[in-house]
Amino acid sequence: MENVLIIGSTGQIGSELTMKLRGDYKGNIVAGYIPGAEPNYEIKESGPCEVVDITNAGQIAQVVDKYKIDTIYNLAALLSAVAESKPQLAWKIGIGGLCNVLEISREKKCALFTPSSIGVFGLNTPKDKTPQDTICRPKTMYGVTKVTGELLSDYYHTRFGVDTRSVRFPGLISYVTPPGGGTTDYAVDIYYSAAKGEKFVCPIAKGTFMDMMYMPDALRAAIEIMEADPTKLEHRNSFNIASLSFDPEIIFNEIKRYVPDFEMEYCVDPLRQSIAESWPNSLDDTCAREEWGWKPEYDLDAMTNDMLTKLKERFA
Q: What is the pLDDT of residues 205-221, one digit of tens each?
């Protein structure tokens, strides 16, 4: 990667990935954003920023030409719970937008990363140690767009030779960017409540396990898959990656080790709960480990310590 365009640079992953790439690479790392979701001061001051609407193919192509882009990170999407309230918009962004960047990647010879998700799985998928290759019958629009995106990306690789690559992100936990409407976002909100000294009201039921990952590991995965030797990739779109799996009680008790007076009560959100119950408890990421050397660095204790330390510094 030399010159990179990040579409959706102000989202949960995009803002942190932009800064990490700018720290690791010397080329143009272009932060693409849409009006109304402008980048923060740090992103604006540290490198080029351009208006890039995923639904506007001409706009994307102009930026690719202007900066001689060789790699695109397509991070534009509506997250799971939000997508259920706006399914047509979720499809327009998730699939209409993906078709635009796939065509541009084909024409301009760009490598393309489009993240997938544990949302591709459904009620018929094996729940524990979910295999790399298994049944993908999601019950959400978010999941439908992600399955479709995996298939489209594989098609463009086999049919046109586009260098498409992807990982299936679990729930992502970060102290930098606030949650944006995902089913797994309770695992971010709970740390914010603990750091502020507030009682946490949990929308996910006790005993509901989901795969999670600390953002530094997620950023490494997004970069390492694009740096991987393509001759070793038997899979491309999309790799299971795994790090943590827990239910609300486990993360609550872990936080109490650091914040003994922390309190939590349950008020289950039926929509988010139904989505959570359709997703795996844990993923088997053997293929990612074998094909490009994936390995997480953070366990629950290391993540909790870092999250609470960073958030308490911010709120202080």
A: 999 999 999 999 999 99
pLDDT score recorded for residue 179: 66
Whether 35 and 51 have beta carbons less than 8 Å apart is answered as: yes
Phi first, then psi: give them for residue 234, nearest 5 degrees: -75, -35
Per-residue pLDDT, 106: 98
Interhelix angle 57-67/97-108, rounded to 10 degrees, is: 40
CA distances for 160 relative to 4, 53, 106, 153, angstroms: 21, 24, 7, 10
State yes or no: is 258 an active-site residue.
Answer: no
Residues 6+ apart with CB under 8 A from 155: none
3-state secondary structure of 304: helix
Instruction: For residues 226 and 6, give the distance between their C-alpha atoms in angstroms, rounded to a whole number.
Output: 13
Sign of the dihedral defined by the CA atoms of residues 100, 106, 107, 112, in that order: positive
- For residue 250, give both structure tokens: 């486990």
From 179, 202, 181, 193, select the one nearest 250 (Cα to Cα): 202
**Which residue ranges in the chain fall short of pLDDT 70?**
178-181
How many Cβ atoms are within 10 Å of 224's Cβ, its own excluded? Answer: 16
169, 213 Cβ separation under 8 angstroms: yes
Which position among 73, 142, 156, 298 bears the catalytic label?
Answer: 142
Specify the pLDDT at position 181: 66
Distance linking the first and last C-alpha atoms of the chain = 39
| Dist. CA 11–CA 29, nearest whole Å | 16
Classify 96 as helix, strand or coil.
Answer: helix
pTM: 0.91
Q: Tokens 């609550």, residue?
A: 252
Cα-Cα-Cα-Cα torsion 109, 293, 306, 213, nearest 10 degrees, comes to 70
Look up residue 232 and give its DSSP letter. Answer: G
In contact, 215 and 185? CB cutoff 8 Å: no
38 φ, ψ (degrees, to nearest 5)? -70, 150
